[in-house]
Amino acid sequence: MVCVYCGGNTNVSNSRPQVKSNRIWRRRSCNNCQAVFTTIELYDPSQTWMVYGSDNKPSAFISEKLFLSIYESLKHRPSALLDAKYLTETVINKLGRTTNNGVIKKDTIAKTASVSLHRFDKVAHTHYQAFHKP
Ligand SMILES: [Zn+2]
Question: What is this structure's pTM?
């Protein structure tokens, strides 16, 4: 990765796997301007997952759609944006454990999001259920 400030080459000076959220946190330093910044590496299913709805037609997995549906349900919370961001990552990590070939059913996405929301915020769960009936 190049420097976000000058485009120079960077080195990783510290790296920490975050097992619970399945990410890797990295501290980078620029060889050119000596700037220090942080990057996060996480799994991106948009290139590998295919979603099948009741019509059995495949469509690409779009994590932003999942994020928006979760965010809509959490809007009553002052921390809705961050909560939705982390819950979306949680749901994606759980969904990854339901497939080994990248095929995901739309129902599985809705059920997984629903279970995660139920554990996190009952009002959000009720809101989500109203719009995503299994
Ligand atoms: Zn730089």
Answer: 0.81
